[in-house]
Automatic annotation (TrEMBL):
Pfam families: Helicase_C. This is Helicase C-terminal domain-containing protein. Residues 1-120 form the Helicase C-terminal domain. It comes from the Eukaryota. It comes from Rubus argutus.
Length: 120
């Protein structure tokens, strides 16, 4: 990724998906939990049960299909007293689910501000 001033940022990340072998998933998740891997890209496989305290940013490429899974997916289920940010990519077709998520979880999901750096 290039910043407007021409600076290049490099990020090393781990990833897995449903096609990854279970032992590969376990190794990658163990590395992420220990902090030796700082970024993790994954699918809905980790919608529940990741329980990693250091997560401060979650990006949802798509919304969960069940409103009750939103807090689990974003890591905001109340077990850890930490602040974090969840960014959701939302299309016009997601309007109803977004409403249902907010109503079910009694929360307000705000539109992303123009200056995202203020959130981090």
């Amino acid at each position: 990724m290039c910043a407007p001033n021409g600076t290049t940022f490099k990020f090393l990340f781990s990833s897995f998906n449903i096609s990854s072998a279970q032992n590969t998933r376990d190794t990658i998740l163990r590395e992420f939990r220990s902090g030796s891997s700082r970024e993790l890209v994954t699918t809905y496989l980790l919608a529940r049960g990741i329980d990693v305290q250091q997560v401060s940013l979650v990006i949802n490429y798509d919304l969960p299909t069940q409103p009750e899974n939103y807090l689990h997916r974003t890591g905001c289920s109340g077990r850890f007293v930490r602040k974090g940010v969840a960014i959701n990519f939302v299309t016009k077709d997601d309007g109803r689910m977004l409403f249902d998520i907010q109503r079910f979880n009694t929360l307000v999901i705000e539109e992303l501000p123009a200056n995202v750096a203020d959130l981090l």
